[in-house]
Amino acid sequence: MSTSQAGLDKSASRYRLGLSCLERDAVQHAVAADGGISLCGEQVSPLPTLGWSLPFVPTVTRACRACVRLAEKPDGVVPHGQS
C-alpha cells in the first residue's frame, strides 16, 4: 500500500457507509457517525449491521467522488449543509 493510499484510508475511516438507495447500483457515501446526510450533502440510508455500521471505503468502485475528496480533508471540516 502506498503512503498516499494509507493516508486516504486513515482519513476516510472515521466515516460510516451511507447508500444513496438500496438497489444494486447504489452510490456509497461518507456519513458522519451522527447523521443521515453525506459529506457531499446527499440524503442517504446508513447500513447498520447488528448494532454497528460499516465503514466508508473510498477505494470502492461506487464511492462518491465528492465524498472521497471531502473525507481527505483534515478534522474539523464541516460536512455540506451542517454547521
TrEMBL record:
In terms of superkingdom, the source organism counts as Bacteria
**Protein name according to UniProt:** Uncharacterized protein
Q: Give the organism the record lists.
A: Nonomuraea glycinis
